[in-house]
What does this fold into?
Amino acid sequence: MTDNNYNSENDITDSKVLNQDEIDSLLGYGIDDESSLQQQNGVQAILSSNMVSYERLPMLEIVFDRLIRLMATSLRNFTQDNVEVSLDSIESMRFGEYIDSLTLPTLLNVFKADEWDNYGLMSLDSSLIYSMVDVLLGGRRGTAAMRIEGRPYTTIELNIVKEIIQLILSDLSTAFDPITSVGFIFDRLETNPRFATITRMSNAVIVAHLRVDMEDRGGRIDLMLPYATLEPVRELLLQMFMGERFGRDTIWENHLMSQLWETDVEIKAVIKETEARLSDISAWQKGSFLPLEITPCENISIFCGDVPLFQGSMGRKEDTVVIKIEGKAEKND
It folds into this structure.
């Protein structure tokens, strides 16, 4: 009895009590900003582990690569200046995380994917907006665009931004053309990120970070598409690709088509189908007759497996029984 009591007291003494720092580490809290950007610990890592990676949509990276080349040409023609567009990164995150990561002031464009019946978001930072205004209104080269903080954007600045957004949305539609036909329509401009909420804060989104450079001026453009917006074309974005053929290999397609035309298939001509009772079939003997209730002029059906193909009339050519095709077979619903 004494030994048992002694062991139970040791068990209670050896039990570990977590302090506040250990509890915060377990739950993923109490981590500084630099380490939290690199990795997540505890429960936070478990909750974020089900995030879908954009790498599971291989075709989407090709779409964005096509977009930056189209944008470079469009913006050069629009500004009459040397414009370079580059793709910094593509990442997956929660919509709430993306909204919290925006640096103010920024201009948010809400656009609609008409055929997909859903929305996307495009953000332009103030550096890019002032640089575009400076270039289009004849600012001197070699000098950085002047930024005026603490005031709303003017009507001229907003009109210029709308023209740029229309160009980018048009290029984005063209970039999706090899996969599917979709039109991106300008919806509205917002300066407050909370007014640009187009999906739930916990929903997964894909963000493409673009960089626009005009010699010593430029800025960033973020293109955000929720996974719910891409759901109608998810299967198309999942397909693998060769170069820029967008998932199609014409050499293999032509080879497969040529082999299909050379394939031998078995067809059968059915004169008549009828039903009989099992008792009648068991009573058949040599010399028994099976009435088919068919006239000599009635058409005969031609099948490939269970699929009806044609109808025709039976005849004779020399010593061979032949069937003359009269038309396509009527498919039974």
Notes: The longest strand covers residues 84-94. Confidence is low (pLDDT under 50) at residues 31-39.
